[in-house]
Write a structure and sequence with these properties.
CATH superfamily of the largest domain: P-loop containing nucleotide triphosphate hydrolases
Shape: elongated
Oligomer: single chain
CATH class of the largest domain: Alpha Beta
CATH architecture of the largest domain: 3-Layer(aba) Sandwich
Strand content: 5-15%
Number of helices: 23
Distance between the termini: 32 Å
Largest sheet: 5 strands, parallel
Length: about 525
């Protein structure tokens, strides 16, 4: 645990004890601020009500004049219920400490504490508090993801315009037709419209009209009666009934057979459905969101799609641009996917090399966002580095000579640049300028994220001059000083330090505890 990130408030009227404790932890890079009166800290914390307190944890004595630890804990928890409090108590007042825990304290420790034991208690409670904060952030993230823009990375004006239109129409029951190439996120858009609608608490039901045989699609949509066809052994409601009160998403509506187009038109007109094999109609209250990669206008002209159904569906048309049309979003999407997959697979990658970023901007992405997501997942799984490289991204099956030539053509030589060759049209030059700007900004951020943490101490042998120039030291003292230097280089992360030292974590703890006990005995002597 990186102790530098934590700030602890110490409330104790014993100035000598407080000084010893602060000195001990200052050397171990855990920041303490001492208050000799509980009311002083409460006054400061009242200025942060409704916001984030300046301390990660409060360590307080139980027996104090003016305001004891019990009353202080109750008042503190009233204004900052999520701020953990640990109380220190004498052996004779353990019952009082338990009472303090019932009042809201997170833990207690007997005073005077053994500092290594206190460290464990502090770290345990700080870790638990940190998990609680992370859970809160996660809950907020989930709530945000259920808003209209959640899960959609958008910087390009074209997609932002589509999102703004979806925001305006989401609360209505108007039928929406989403068009765009495969992989552009049509179903994601449909789900987010549903979440932002008045039907958000009801069902969202999706069906791909091109994935189900024609003879089964009617039964899937409208349901069937028992005995209506071979295999119909019981009455079965269809997806319209399942989505009643909610939203039905008809993906690839352009592939719907003509016979079913007629039945769907009647449902849109009358808001009634009839199961296969039945003669009675059932009322349904369903909002329709349809999607297709086809140009339905051309399908109507070719007589493959009913014109009247097209107009019924095309009430609110929303077109999603391909990834090629929104290059501003390629690198932010790549970063978003990498964070997700690096966490899922416990991989070290935190960014991309410049060559990888250039390749992503030049790649055609015919599969759009879906193809980019798959490429980043594959790269996150195979890489062993902190930055995704070109070899991680370029899959062997895709590595054709034509693609290699296309990539090479995007990076003109210095000679050709100087000679003014490869001069493109104004639009091409503008696109190149945009890519260069995006690359510069993205690579700088990516390099910062991918910078490897300091693992082992640098090989400058910093301990050797200290030993040779100063007074001779014992081997045990030298070992302890080296352990603490490694811990310092590892920012207090004991797992990492133990790995570098070639010992297990328990051995490291035992050595540190023995040294702390010796220092503690020396200080008391």
């Amino acid at each position: 645990m990186n102790q530098q990130q934590f700030h602890i408030a110490l409330v104790d009227d014993d100035a000598e004890f407080a000084e010893r404790l602060v000195d001990y932890y200052t050397a171990r890079k855990m920041k303490f601020t001492h208050f000799d009166r509980a009311e002083t800290l409460l006054s400061e914390l009242r200025g942060h009500v409704g916001g984030t307190p300046p301390y990660d944890l409060v360590l307080t004595d139980l027996a104090m004049p003016e305001m004891d630890g019990m009353e202080f804990t109750k008042k503190l928890k009233a204004i900052h219920p999520d701020l953990p409090v640990i109380v220190m108590t004498a052996n004779s007042s353990v019952d009082a400490a338990i009472e303090a825990i019932e009042a809201g304290a997170a833990d207690y420790i007997v005073k005077p504490p053994h500092f290594p034991h206190l460290t464990v208690v502090l770290q345990r409670n700080l870790h638990f508090s940190q998990i609680q904060r992370e859970n809160l952030v996660l809950r907020r993230t989930i709530e945000d993801s259920q808003s209209l823009t959640g899960g959609i990375v958008a910087k390009s004006p074209t997609l932002l315009k589509a999102i703004e239109l979806a925001k305006r129409v989401a609360p209505s029951d108007a039928t929406v037709l989403i068009t765009g190439e495969s992989g552009t996120g049509k179903e994601v858009f449909a789900r987010l419209i549903h979440r932002a609608s008045n039907r958000a608490e009801q069902s969202f039901v999706a069906i791909n009209c091109s994935a189900i045989p024609e003879n089964l699609l009617e039964s899937e949509l409208f349901g069937h009666a028992k005995g209506s066809f071979t295999g119909a052994e019981f009455n079965r409601p269809g997806l319209f009934e399942e989505a009643n009160g909610g939203t039905l998403f008809l993906d690839e509506i352009g592939d719907m057979p003509p016979q079913l187009q007629t039945k769907l038109l009647r449902v849109l007109q009358d808001r009634k459905i009839k199961r296969v094999g039945e003669n009675t109609y059932r009322d349904v209250d369903v909002r329709i969101i349809a999607a297709t990669l086809r140009n339905l206008g051309q399908e109507v002209k070719a007589k493959r799609f009913r014109e009247d159904l097209f107009y019924r569906l095309n009430v609110i048309p929303i077109r999603l641009p391909s990834l090629r049309e929104r290059k501003e979003d390629i690198l932010p999407l790549a970063k978003y996917f990498l964070e997700r997959f690096a966490t899922r697979y416990s991989k070290p990658a935190q960014g991309f090399t410049r060559e990888a970023a250039e390749w992503m901007l030049s790649h055609p992405w015919k599969g759009n966002v879906r193809e980019l997501e798959n490429a980043i997942e594959r790269a996150a799984v195979v890489t062993m580095d902190t930055a995704i490289g070109l070899d991680d991204l370029r899959f062997e099956a895709l590595d054709s000579a034509a693609e290699t030539a296309a990539i090479a053509s995007t990076t003109p030589s210095a000679e050709s640049t100087a000679a003014g060759e490869n001069a493109g049209t104004p639009a091409e030059n503008s696109s190149a300028g945009l890519e260069a700007s995006l690359l510069d900004e993205f690579v700088k951020e990516s390099e910062r994220a991918a910078a490897p943490p300091a693992e082992a101490p640098a090989a400058d042998h910093s301990l050797i001059p200290t030993v040779l120039e100063g007074e001779p030291v014992t081997l045990a003292d030298l070992e302890l000083r080296y352990i603490r230097e490694v811990l310092d280089r590892c920012e207090g992360v004991k797992d990492r330090a133990a790995k570098i030292l070639g010992i297990d974590r328990k051995t490291l703890y035992r050595k540190l505890q023995a040294a702390d006990a010796a220092e503690h005995a020396s200080a008391e002597g």
